[in-house]
């Protein structure tokens, strides 16, 4: 790895746009919350749980990820989980983050969406005071019927109004294969009518056709993962022309065997074709690293140069769901840092 460039990236101001907050739950906190809440886990030690993080595909990860989330019962649990992420993000010089949460994982255990959002919100407000701006995106679980997503959306309606400046969008996650975006056309149309931002996981394990569906049927503003788009030149051209961003997560892709070698990752090819890609951590507690570790892994494997790293960072800021004025201010800070000497204080 190029140590100078890695160090420059580490301290660069950046946005993270693909992070499942339940995927930031470290094993230590899972055990602490299990004890606090009297929840019994299927693993008898932190090491045993960590040893189970040997995934073979997306589903093998999701099974353990949902089991880990079972310790979240009270507002305070969501707060503690989110504050731990805020601290890790600040340590990686993340200045803006857009966080996913999975309400259906919690409502099925009798935990209301309002409880989850209140706990996440209080930690994000604390993050704002410490220099990390943020948005929250409610994701539907695609392995469940669309009726469940519609019910979840209706339940969340008052929250979209109450937390207007934080809870700004909806997304689609969980098991991709066999659950195409078309299954969720109606609920996304409702979210669109409400003026919410729209994102969907597509082209992680699923084919390029799922990315087309996310664009054409769900009318998403960003695509999560989308790394299999590279298999279809027409799709690559469409993404490049429209500047619809792909929120790429290298360590996730490696751990879930989307690519068997990081050197085979499509990120650089997508970047070369003019697609707005950037780097994110997805589920950092499960995949071995927060956002900077993801930058280092891809920098090392694909031998990215200074200009390519700058583009990734800039794309993260430009693809954020913030006002134009906020976007310009964020990019100006990156430019001052990147081009004006990188002492970590944004000197220019
Ligand atoms: N893909 C789909 N669903 C998810 C993921 C992912 O990478 N992480 C958490 N839920
Ligand atoms: Zn994801």
TrEMBL record:
Textual note on the cofactor: Binds 1 zinc ion per subunit.
Location of the active site: 204
Domain of life: Bacteria
Cofactor (UniProt): Zn(2+)
Residues marked Important for catalytic activity (site): 225
Listed GO MF terms: adenine deaminase activity; zinc ion binding
Binding-site positions, Zn(2+): 18, 20, 201, 282
Binding positions for substrate per the UniProt entry: 283
InterPro entries: A_deaminase_dom, ADE, Ado/ade_deaminase, Metal_Hydrolase
The keyword Hydrolase is annotated on this UniProt entry: yes
GO cellular component entries: cytosol
Enzyme class: hydrolase
Annotated EC: 3.5.4.2
GO biological process, one term: nucleotide metabolic process
Pfam families: A_deaminase
Keywords: Hydrolase, Metal-binding, Nucleotide metabolism, Zinc
Every Adenosine deaminase domain range: 13-336
Catalytic activity, as annotated: adenine + H2O + H(+) = hypoxanthine + NH4(+)
Family: Belongs to the metallo-dependent hydrolases superfamily. Adenosine and AMP deaminases family. Adenine deaminase type 2 subfamily.
Protein function: Catalyzes the hydrolytic deamination of adenine to hypoxanthine. Plays an important role in the purine salvage pathway and in nitrogen catabolism.
Protein name: Adenine deaminase
Organism name: Caballeronia sordidicola
């Amino acid at each position: 790895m190029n140590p100078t460039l890695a160090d420059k990236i580490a301290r660069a101001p950046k946005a993270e746009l693909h992070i499942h907050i339940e995927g930031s739950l470290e094993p230590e906190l899972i055990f602490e919350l299990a004890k606090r809440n009297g929840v019994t886990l299927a693993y008898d030690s932190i090491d045993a749980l960590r040893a189970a993080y040997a995934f073979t595909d997306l589903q093998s990860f999701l099974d353990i990820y949902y089991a880990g989330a079972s310790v979240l019962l009270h507002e305070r649990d969501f707060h503690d989980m989110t504050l731990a992420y805020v601290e890790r993000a600040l340590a990686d010089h993340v200045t803006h983050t857009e966080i996913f949460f999975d309400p259906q994982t919690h409502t099925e255990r009798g935990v209301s969406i309002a409880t989850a959002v209140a706990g996440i919100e209080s930690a994000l407000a604390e993050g704002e005071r410490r220099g990390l701006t943020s948005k929250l995106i409610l994701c539907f679980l695609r392995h469940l019927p669309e009726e469940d997503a519609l019910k979840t959306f209706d339940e969340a309606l008052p929250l979209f109004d109450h937390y207007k400046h934080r809870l700004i969008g909806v997304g689609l996650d969980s098991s991709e294969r066999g659950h195409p975006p078309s299954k969720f056309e109606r609920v996304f149309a409702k979210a669109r009518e409400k003026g919410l931002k729209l994102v969907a996981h597509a082209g992680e394990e699923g084919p390029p056709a799922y990315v087309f569906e996310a664009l054409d049927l769900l009318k998403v503003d960003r695509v999560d993962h989308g790394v299999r788009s590279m298999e279809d030149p027409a799709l690559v051209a469409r993404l490049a022309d429209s500047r619809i961003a792909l929120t790429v997560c290298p360590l996730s892709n490696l751990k879930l065997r989307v690519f068997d070698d990081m050197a085979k990752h499509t990120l650089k090819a997508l970047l070369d074709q003019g697609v707005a890609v950037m780097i994110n951590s997805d589920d950092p507690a499960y995949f071995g690293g927060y956002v900077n570790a993801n930058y280092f892994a891809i920098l090392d494997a694909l031998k990215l140069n200074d200009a390519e790293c700058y583009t990734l960072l800039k794309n993260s800021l430009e693809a954020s769901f913030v006002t134009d004025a906020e976007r310009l201010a964020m990019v100006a800070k990156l430019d001052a840092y990147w081009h004006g000497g990188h002492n970590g204080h944004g000197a220019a």
